Amino acid sequence: MYIRTQRALAVGVSAQVALGAWAWGNDGTFGNELTVESLQPVFDRAMKNGLNLWDSAYVYGMGTSEKILGTFLKDWPRDSYIISDKLTPQCADYSSDSPVKDMLDMQYQLLGINNMDIYWIHNPVDSPKWIEEVASYYEGKDNAPIIGVSNHNLDEIKEADRILKSHGLRLGAVQNHYSLLNRSSEESGILDYCKNNHIYFFAYMVLEQGALSGKYDTKHPFPAGSQRAEVYNPVLDKLEIMNKKLKEIADELHVSSAQIPVAYAIKKGTIPIVGVTKVNHVDDVLSTLNIKLTDKHIKELENTADHLNLNLIRMWEKKMD
Fold it and tell me: Is the dihedral of CA 215, 219, 223, 225 positive or negative?
């Protein structure tokens, strides 16, 4: 699946994978202290190799992620990259007469741009209020982005599409937690709905924040002090079983274990969002685009995941049933 915006279409830019800047917010989720200096070569490697779809949000460090990304964007023409950003209801000004404009203006300043390519309502808090707000803001505007919703279930997705259509717009994208260990967006019919209605489905946390990278196990747990450690360290024994299957298939295909969950998400017709904090993460993504998983691989991976019976729904989301 490819995503194109009007500007991207004009220069022939397309993307199968989005690069995530969540960790760039240094908000404690990943337990890292990332800097502009350490991330500059990551951004440069991605852009020079055609990976130009960047996903961020104001809530990722309350503007920190967007500000770092904006530092890098200033050296590139606006039509050379695609920006996916979000309106998080909890961060919006409910007392404002123009909350969407206020949020966008702040994000534009942080990013150093004056338009969005993809704009999301980050979660269903006070839905459908924020669908109405975004729809009203963009109604009749020539520069309306692809409008998406994130962390919404099927009924909420259909409701969002109805509201947008009443304003002469349409729902163009859905972004939910989707991985080998959380396929509720598939089981609930969301993936099929998106496919049948020409809606892009973005899969975030395809690597379960590194738990499916092969880097961590019972002898090498996540470093204490991060949200990842709290969630995944208690179930590392089960994750070892999943990672063993990932390594088995990776060895067969002569790739790294971390590439298989991303290739899986692509095979399932989604656009995976892959967090990148090191140059080798970008190189892994580039190599992943050449991986061809078979139906047999998919069945083996899903059977292994299903037998683990893990519940990795996070505090900000819900099961999509």
Answer: positive
Q: Measure CA 50 to chain center.
A: 18
Closest CA to 177 of 133, 240, 231, 128: 231
pLDDT digits (tens, 9 = 90+) for 99-149: 999 999 999 999 999 999 999 999 999 989 999 999 999 999 988 999 999
CA 64 – CA 44 distance, rounded (Å): 19
CA distances to 132, 135, 142 from 163, rounded to whole Å, are 7, 8, 19
* Residue whose C-alpha is closest to residue 84's, from 210, 207, 202, 165: 202
Structural domains for the chain: 6-308 (3.20.20.100)
DSSP per-residue string spanning 220-245: BPPPTTSHHHHHHGGGHHHHHHHHHH
Is pTM beyond 0.90? Reply is: yes
Each residue of 65-74: b (16+ CB within 10 Å) or e?
bbbbbbbbbe
Tell me the pLDDT tens digit for each residue of 213-263: 999 999 999 988 888 899 999 999 999 999 999 999 999 999 999 999 999
